[in-house]
Each structure stands twice: as C-alpha cells, then as structure tokens.
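Have a close read of the entry that follows and walk me through the local backbone shapes. See right below:
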Amino acid sequence: MVRTIAFVGPLPPPAGGVALANMRFQRLLSENNNNLNIIQLNTSRGLKNADLYRRKGLANFFHFFKNIIDFIIFIFSNKIHICNLFVVPNISFLREAFFIIILKLSQKKIFIHLHSKTKDDYFLKGCRLKIFTTIVSMGDIVYVLSEKHHKPFFLKYISPKKIIVLENFIDLREFDNKIENKKPEMLYVGRLSEKKGFFDLVKAISVLHKQFPDLRINVLGEFENEDFKHRILGEIERQKIQCFKFYGTVLGVKKLRFFKESSIFLFPSHFENSPIVLKEAIASKLAIIASDIAENRQILDDFGCKIYFKVKDHNHLSKKIKNLLEDKIKLKDMMYQASKAKIFDYLDAKKALNLSFKKVLFDEN
C-alpha cells in the first residue's frame, strides 16, 4: 500500500536551519521507500534573506493568511496518512497551532519536528509555554533536537511515549577530506546578523588583521537586512580589513568544498537551537572557535576540536583566534580530534525514523 506523507514547513530560500532540516528529512525518507508518496507545502516567503527580529508588517500578515488558505486546500485535496510539521515557539506558532488543530480534527497522523530552544522565545514562558506544549502534545510523534538538553525540558510537559530524539543530522561521507590538503583559511557559515555574532567577529578581526596580513575568512550567508549590511561593510572599510570574502548563500557541492578546504570554523552566535553547522564543521575535520552558549556546548563539550570564548566578548574572541593562529601544533591536533569524533549522523536519523513509523504507522495494522 502506497502511503502519502506530507511535509509542511519552510524550504529555501532563505537557507535557514528549519528549511534545510526539512530538505534533509524528505531526502532521508525518500531513499529506499518506494511505498511512500512524499508531497510538500512550502510555508516560506521565498525571500533571499530573513530578518527574524524586525517587527512584522502587512506583508507578514498577508503571508500568514495565505499559508492558512494554502494549508486548508492542501490538506483536503490530498489523501494524507502522515503530516510532518516543523514547529518553532515564536509568534509563527499561531499558524502551526491552527495546522495542528485542523489535522487533529481531520484525524491525520501528526509528526511534529520541534525546532526549539528551552528559553528566551515567545511561547517558552509562563502560561504561553503551557498552551504551546498542550497543542504540540496533540501530535502522535514529537521530535526533539537532543537527548541531554531538549528532551529533559520537554518531558516535563509532553508524554515520554510521544517524544523521540531526532537531532539535526548530516551524511558524514559528504564531508570527508584529508587534513593535509586543507588551506590556512577560516570559515563562517550562517545568517549575517548581530544576534549571530557577526559584528563581534568583525570587531575581533579588527584587532588582528594587521598582525596576520595573509588571514582569509570565507563568509557563506546573507545579511539579515540592509541596515546591518551597511553597518558591517562600513566597519570593515573604516578598519581597512581585507580578509573577509563574502559569497552569499552557498549550497551543495560548492558549500562542501569550503568546508573540506578550510582549517578553522568560526561560530560566534548569541543564540541557537541545535546548530547543524557545528556538526558539518566536525565532520569536515575543522578546528572550531565557538561562543560558550549552552546550545553550542551540548554539541561540542565531548570533543577536543573546540575552543570556547565568552559570548558577545569580541576581545576574548580575538584572543582565542590569535592563540590558535600562532599555535600550529594545537591547530593540527584539534583537526585530528575532529576526525575521531562520533556525532549523530544519517544512520542514527534512520533509526529514529524507523522507530517513529513503528510507533504510529504500522500500529494501525
């Protein structure tokens, strides 16, 4: 029997974490599953970049209602057995809450991919947290992003029978490379915004660039908005920094090439959920300099390939970069430590997926 599996959530552009996770999960599910028909509803606005923190305007309002109408048409014009929803606890959850309730009333099986922090989001405090977790609990399966960090938090509100750990995953084979072939270059991948720590990075490099004139930092990602772009480019021009090379959004083989050829990965973010880009950096055998936020530590703490700096402290970041650039032995050792790390990968995700189907789909028979 062919079963129809629907995916409802954002797809690139922009190439955000949830959109990329959506793509990876669809790809995983489609492999060697000829008895599944995969369909999708893209909820993204399709913009080149996304400003997550600016107040929402009329365009967002109309997009919200367009998503609602598109969803109703999508659900009732397709015979769907399971619907995968990608849920975050910010104001967009108002849309996903409507989706979940409609799916429940129409007796569809619901798999919820919970891309969430454990604090500092709109629906993660007080009575809003209770509303959020009550609605999320309507799902038949709730995927959380980590065993040690996210699962204990959500077990307080959601039945353990429904929770399955499905970390952001990668295919390790795609990132394999030889350390001796790497270039003495640094890599930044992600949204270019203040909350992602990019201004901290520019300030840190402003202290170092004259001491290391051959320094090169490849930057993959889009500026969050024009104001921040002008601010960053203005600071770079004032400081006469020449080491940053901006490439915009880069995906596929070209992105893999940057990971494989670089030596140091820079990750100065102020906040994260469960950053898959850190796993990509580990799989690529990179030495990692990352902010000391809890979400970074829950991925990196067990491995010897990382150095932490105090989040938002560009002077501390500058010091850590300088020390690593001057210590070639330590840099090489960190890359070899990364090569030995065991991280949640494609095969682990397949196991979690099989468990989901065993719990829900095949229990019908």
Q: What stands out?
A: The chain has two domains: 3-169+345-364, 172-339.
